[in-house]
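For reproducibility, we list the full input for the flavin-adenine dinucleotide complex.
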Amino acid sequence: MIDIREEVKLASFTTFDIGGNARYFVEIGNLDELEEAIAFAKEKEIHYFVLAGGSNVLFSDSGFDGLVIKIANDSMVMHGGEIICGAGTDLMGFLTFVSDNELTGGENLAGIPGSVGGAVRGNAGAFGTEMKDIVKEVHVYNAEIGKTTVFTNEQCEFTYRNSFFKKNPQYIIISVTFHFELGNKGEIDKAMYNTIAKRNSKQIQNIKSAGSWFVNPTVDDRVQKMFELDTGQKSHGGRVPAGWLLQSCNVFQKRIGDIQAGVQHANYFINMGKGTAEQALQLSTLAKTRVRDEFGVQLKEEVVLAGF
Ligand SMILES: Cc1cc2nc3c(=O)[nH]c(=O)nc-3n(C[C@H](O)[C@H](O)[C@H](O)COP(=O)(O)OP(=O)(O)OC[C@H]3O[C@@H](n4cnc5c(N)ncnc54)[C@H](O)[C@@H]3O)c2cc1C
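The corresponding predicted structure, in tokenized form, follows.
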């Protein structure tokens, strides 16, 4: 039996620490509970929103006028060289489990906040590794028709920070099967430690933020060349860092209310204290306008906006 609570403050469930109340809020630990939660939303004819680690989401100041379903199934089972993991499992906890089992392949992902399911949905990645590199199968629940399905890696249609599930939010990830190579625990731990050290040197991690605000956009040759000339770096896949575009338009450290475009890096919007969703959206609009005027590039939020 699920425990549906009313008027639950959402801010504390997000790393940005912003957001009003959910009209209804429930934590689910397994498929039966998820089905029950969806049935509740259908019966009440209200919208639902799937929330996991809350590290890539901005809730509106007025909250979410529906049911927020927090994915909290966090089992991990080892089966041969494969691990089957509940979608609500903390990604870092999962990677530690992988290392404890002397399996290699996920070291570059160490330190990405949030859950396994959230990371698969957004094909989260860092330092050249993405979730797509370690996922074997994804077990999902289609909330529209009430059926479960298994997706192979190929069927997940992973691309840069994108997947089939991101484009089709009626598919809720329940669990994920991963495959790895056997490795050496000492080397795996060292690589994970180095990854986290690199992350800390690039961007302070323990701040109130939702990670990268904008997706790195695909741009035309002219802007790619400008980026390469300015930084001496190559652009990859026709993309340039959103942070570079923002920096070039003097958005770095621009502040509206308590929301600031970065401390070390302009593409991390930071809640410096009592920031609001309204202020974050104003800063986002200002940044998009400047980049569009200067470069003719349309930035798109990576962070998910909910309740607006
Ligand atoms: C300090 C910081 C650093 C970060 N660094 C990185 C980085 O290096 N690389 C990177 O890729 N990202 C990074 N991020 C962004 C974020 O951590 C990832 O996007 C993460 O994978 C989101 O997972 P989550 O569980 O927190 O998802 P949430 O924020 O809870 O949700 C995000 C979206 O995923 C959906 N979702 C969540 N769980 C499920 C599920 N089970 N089924 C279907 N949909 C689901 C939600 O509905 C929502 O639309 C960073 C964020 C922060 C705050």
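Residues 15, 50-57, 71, 87, 112-115, 117-119, 121-122, 124-126, 165, 172-173, 205, 209-211, 304 surround flavin-adenine dinucleotide (CB under 6 Å). Residues 154 and 266 are 34 Å apart (CA to CA). Both points were considered when choosing residues for closer inspection.
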